[in-house]
Amino acid sequence: MSNQNDNIKLAAVAAVSFTAGYLVHKHCSSSQPSSTENPKATSQVFTQKVISDVQASWKLVGTDFDAAGALFYTNLFKMGPFLPSTAFKGVDMKMQANRLFKMIDGAVKLLDKPDDLVPVLTQLGVRHALYGTLEEHYAVVGSALIATLGTALGAAFTEEVKQSWLTVYGVMQTVMVAGQNSEEGQAKVAKQKEYRTHRLVRSSWKAAVGENFEAVGELFYTKLFALAPSLKDTLFKKVDMKAQSTKVIKMVDTCVGLLDKPNELVPALRDAGLRHVRYGAEAAHYPVVGQALMQTLEAALGDKFDAETRASWAAVYGVIQATMIEGAMKGTP
Ligand code: HEM
Ligand code: HEM
After folding, report:
1. Closest residue CA from atom 22 of ligand 1
2. Could you tell me the residue ranges of all domains in the chain?
3. Contact 157, 57 (CB under 8 A)
4. Does the beta carbon of 235 sit less than 6 angstroms from any atom of ligand 2?
């Protein structure tokens, strides 16, 4: 088992140089087209032996991907018992096994066409960034694949054939990981995270506040004045707190409604920040206001204010605070 992992690691190292060579070649040929160079000949990633070993042995596996896939996932979960409750939580493994084998089938057919294969694997890697795949998972998947081929092929899975598969898997892994770590992959992850954060903030706000702006606002100021008693007799001394309670919640409500529209949210917050300079608000006041808001949500939501919801609100309040302070600073000479 660990021996297989070592082999895969070695193959991956070899793959880096193969792939790097391929990418360097691509770059050169696009920036300096040369009539003496034959891009198809020099951009091959695999030797002919590797290609024929892998293609011939893959044919022997047959086209019953459901059976091979089931065996693969049995092996995978034996080797990575943590996977069903982490990476593959809630995934229909039968369908998943079929998709994996179809993808390998497609890749095997493209081994001699790296110009077609690499973009497919890169995009697959970009999508895997969204599945929460970690780099170290690839060794486990590779070992399960090798074990499955061993069972499916029996004596036909010679040491040489195995080495050819390790080379191919190493390249697949390297290109997929590069796709996962690419700007596109990371941007997709950030977008997915942001989407989740906004969705949680919207749903928890609705649950906590509903139409009760004034009551929730009063709760908020009770919390705020408990945290910072001096504010009551200074900045808020002459403020009509009943009206203010509704106003503050209404503004947070507007912010929550505009989370996906930064072009509208940011200027509105900057303006509010500037107005707050006139109310005597200072940058140092913002964290305690944030704390009061969190306590208000906690009181209203109880257990529903879980760690992820709390973290989402902390992120959103961080942006509100930073943007208001920015507005205040830009507006004051
Ligand atoms: C060479 C290696 C791999 C190949 C060829 C591969 C292939 C695929 C394919 C074809 C899909 C279907 C969805 C899509 O096309 O985006 C998929 C989904 C997925 N893969 Fe992989 N994969 C590989 C490695 C891994 C690894 C290392 C993990 C981590 C344990 C992983 C976890 C997943 C998960 C969680 C899904 C999503 C299933 C779902 O939400 O329906 N894969 N993979
Ligand atoms: C997320 C942060 C905040 C929000 C959403 C918010 C919201 C509001 C709103 C909607 C008003 C009504 C007037 C207007 O819109 O200009 C207001 C007024 C006020 N805010 Fe804030 N505020 C925030 C932070 C702060 C901070 C950090 C302080 C300083 C302790 C503060 C102190 C005041 C005061 C003193 C008023 C006075 C209003 C008056 O004189 O009538 N606010 N706030």
Report:
1. 100
2. 2-181, 188-331
3. yes
4. yes
Can you give the pLDDT at residue 9?
Answer: 47
- Evaluate: CB of 252 within 6 angstroms of ligand 2: yes
Q: What is the pLDDT of residue 213?
A: 97
Q: What pLDDT does residue 43 have?
A: 60
CATH, domain 188-331, list 2.40.300.10, 1.10.490.10, 1.10.8.190, 1.20.1050.10: 1.10.490.10
Q: Are the C-beta atoms of 174 and 16 separated by less than 8 Å?
A: yes
Atom of ligand 1 nearest to the CA of 83: 30
Q: Is 328 in the pocket of ligand 2 (CB under 6 A)?
A: no
For residue 248 and ligand 2, the question of a CB distance below 6 A is answered with yes
166-169 CB contacts, 8 Å cutoff, 24+ apart:
166/7, 166/8, 166/10, 166/11, 166/142, 167/11, 167/14, 167/15, 167/46, 167/50, 168/46, 168/50, 168/54, 168/107, 168/108, 168/111, 169/8, 169/11, 169/142, 169/145
Q: Block means of pLDDT (10 residues each) for the chain, length 333 residues? A: 47 46 40 40 78 96 87 89 84 86 95 95 96 92 94 95 97 97 95 96 97 97 98 96 98 98 97 96 97 98 97 98 95 62
* Fold observed for domain 2-181: Globin-like (1.10.490)
Identify the nearest ligand to the CA of 90 by its number.
1
How far is residue 129's CA from residue 131's CA, in Å, rounded to a whole number? 6
